[in-house]
Design brief:
The chain has about 90 residues and is α+β, with helices and mostly antiparallel strands. It has one domain. Helices cover about 30% and strands about 30% of the residues. The protein contains three helices and five strands. The longest helix is centred in the middle third of the chain and has 10 residues. The protein is globular and about 40 Å long. The chain starts with 5 loop residues before the first strand and ends with a strand.
Length: about 90
C-alpha cells in the first residue's frame, strides 16, 4: 500500500505550482490512485468532503463518477491527486 498523504488543495497553493502539476499530469484509475495513497488519510479527506464511508449510508467517493484521478509532480515531488468540484486535492 502507498504512503502518500494529503498535502494541500489548489485553493491553498499557488497558481504556478498547480498549473505545472496539471500540465504534466496523466489520468489514472481510482484503483491506481489507491495504490499510492495512505488509505486512512484518504478516508479522513473523503469524510471532510461529505462522502459516506459506506455505500449503504449515502454516496461514497468511489461511487461518484464526477471525481477524476491523476498522477503528476507537485513542487518537484511525485504526487497523485483527485479533482472534485474543480478542486485538485494533492497527495505526496
Amino acid at each position: 500500500m502507498g504512503g502518500m498523504i494529503f498535502v494541500t488543495d489548489c485553493i491553498h497553493s499557488d497558481g504556478w505550482s498547480i498549473r505545472g502539476m496539471i500540465d504534466e499530469s496523466r489520468d489514472i484509475s481510482r484503483r491506481t490512485f489507491l495504490q499510492h495513497v495512505d488509505r486512512e488519510n484518504l478516508r479522513e479527506v473523503e469524510l471532510r468532503l461529505g462522502y459516506s464511508d459506506h455505500p449503504s449510508h449515502g454516496l461514497t467517493m468511489a461511487g461518484d463518477y464526477h471525481v477524476s484521478y491523476s498522477k503528476s509532480v507537485y513542487r518537484g515531488r511525485p504526487c497523485v491527486y483527485f479533482t472534485w468540484s474543480a478542486i485538485e486535492h494533492i497527495f505526496c
